[in-house]
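Hi team,

As requested, here is the filled-out complex form for the tryptophanyl-5'AMP run. I kept the field names the same as last time so the parser does not choke. Let me know if anything looks off before we queue the next batch.

— J.
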Amino acid sequence: MPRVLSCIQPTGSVHLGNHLGALINWVAGQHEGDVYHGIVDLHALTVVDTPGLIGDQTVELAAMLFAVGLDPQVATVFVQSHIHEHSELSWIMECTVSYGELSRMTQFKDKSAKREGEFISAGIFTYPALMAADILLYDADEVPVGDDQRQHVEITRDVALRFNHRFGDTFVIPRAVHPKAGARVMDLQDPTSKMSKSAATDAGIVYMLDDNATIEKKFKRAVTDNDGEVRYDRAAKPGVSNLLDILSACSGTPVDTLAASYSQYGPLKKDTAEAVISVVEPVRARYGELMADRGELTRLLRIGNDRARAVAAATLARVHSAVGLLPRV
Ligand code: TYM
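And here is what came back:
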């Protein structure tokens, strides 16, 4: 059974990109692997500084992860800041990754460019070291993520190989796993940019907690093009291709089959909205039930944290011994 790990930040509401790029696959994979899923609140500190906000968003995200179908009996769902090994291994990873490697990360370049003139924390720069720690602590073979995380998983592999070379075989070398459809869900208003919580407006973002009328409206207004032909071509027809990709991820039908069965944009938009609603509606209902019982959510997180801590502690001890730090006295 492969060991699987993937995480999500508690920054704002979960959107369709998160769901189709990652969460759907976490749920599908939970019976085929030994799976660990973290709510990475420490990562969110790189951009969130409002007191108290992250705690609330962590509970909401936990409810969402269980609502989409992660089964607490099977999947280990934990909170990153509750497992101190993440921060500790992150420092060792910072000493294993180079300044040059971190400088080349596109996410760092994008995020720091967007914040020009504002406070840019060093955490935005060292972010990949903490992410490498998240992955390597759990001896993960597979990391199911959207396309935007490809470079982060690559750097994790490089750092793990370097560490193993310096200090002897310590880490399992992970690989990224991407879904066939939905690996890169684009903004409905700007289909050349990925759907992202940091977009300027909400009009092109479909949230898991949006009501049906809002979802229908967002798809109806989705930006397409003027040539009127339904064809999958990400470069020439980003808006239409995005709709086909979303419909494919929600229905399981390949994009080419779908493209061949539509001749007009209107019905494609309508059917895509309907397919999304059929995925999102039951999640919304379960989310409401789960949020009504915070005590139960805390209990479920405690179970996940205990399981995660046992694995993380053993890995960190192995790392300390490989490096040759003086055993604790
Ligand atoms: P985050 O919190 O931004 O997103 C969580 C997951 O959602 C995927 N995703 C998308 N997939 C398709 N289309 C989109 N528009 C889209 N937007 C987001 C992401 O690829 C991700 O899989 N750095 C990570 C969190 C992280 C992590 C880790 C992931 C921290 N440690 C260890 C895996 C393993 C992030 O910011 O994801």
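Two things worth flagging: The chain is about 55% helix and 5% strand. The two ends are 37 Å apart (CA to CA).

Thanks,
J.
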